[in-house]
Amino acid sequence: MSLDALRGFDMFWIIGGSGLVLSLAHVLGFDAYVPWLRDQFTHPMWNGFTFYDLIFPLFVFLVGVAMPFSFSKHLARGEGRGHLYWRICRRTVLLVLLGIICNNGVLKTSFADQRFPSVLGRIGLCYFFAALIMLHSSARGRLAWILVLLLGYWAAMTWIPVPKFGAGNLTPGATLADYIDRTVMPGKLYLGVRDPEGLFSTIPAIATALIGVLAGQWLRESRRNGHVKAAALLVAAGLCLALGYFWDRSFPINKNLWSSSFVLWTAGWSLLLLGLFYLVIDVWGWKSWAFVFVVIGANAITIYVAQQWIDFDALGQLLFAHHAPLHRSLLNNAGLLMKWFSLYILYRQRIFLRL
Known about the structure:
It is built from 15 helices and no strands. It has helices spanning 2-27, 34-40, 55-76, 81-104, 119-135, 139-159, 176-184, 202-219, 226-247, 260-283, 291-297, 300-309, 312-320, 328-331, 334-348. Helix 1 (2-27) crosses helix 12, helix 3 packs across helix 8 (202-219) and helix 4 runs antiparallel to helix 5.
């Protein structure tokens, strides 16, 4: 249950949770904290880290955590490796296609104006490569892959020269990742000279998913009790945070580049949250508070895509504007309530849309 709850907690911020928190802070009289909260709910321009920077890598991490559970379930049903490969390929293609559609709409036909990199596309590619590595390596092999991906990406970004900019230039538009994306990616890039979901920076993101795979594997370990599992996750979190902090000095924590230090730093926070959610929900059994997040996490991709096409905010305003008196700042978050109730209906009907 903790996995669904943490996935829902992560998606909560994507579907409007930040606006609700800011509104509640204002209504409850904590205006002094609003500027700090607002800063945490925006991305840094380049280097640095805020809470909002954790949302995307946490989801990629959780994709990895789910893999040992999902794959073992399919294999236990008697499904062969061939069927599993088909599922992996199908899910990857669907995620990439959905990402392109969310970026560009359905009817846009001009190839040059299409933006092909996307959030869902990166999730799909990370899932694909992490799944293949998981199926063909041991735990030590997966750890070795993580090291190769992170060190290799750092070495390439530091030592390979970029035309007109040289080697090791980590300013916007001048990095190796930006140059490769401008050279090989079709269509247009999100920011013209670079794309935060570009092709080359997906390489270290695969390591984010693989760290999740190791965490999921550890949670499935039957020989350890829950407290030991949670404690190990928290220790691993501290180690990743320490490594990310020190690596930041030479390879800055940067979401746009998905730098190796960013991978370790966000993996640390992801492991910390997973350890706490697992301890509280699955070990101690305190589950009722997490229901609001479980409802979201059970259909996370569904609501991410649906909000691209359905104006939940307008529906919420229409439904609540003439009913019980609400503070204006809370009324502005009625769309979030509409999204949650839509997911709740799916949850109660046991409808879970999977790719």
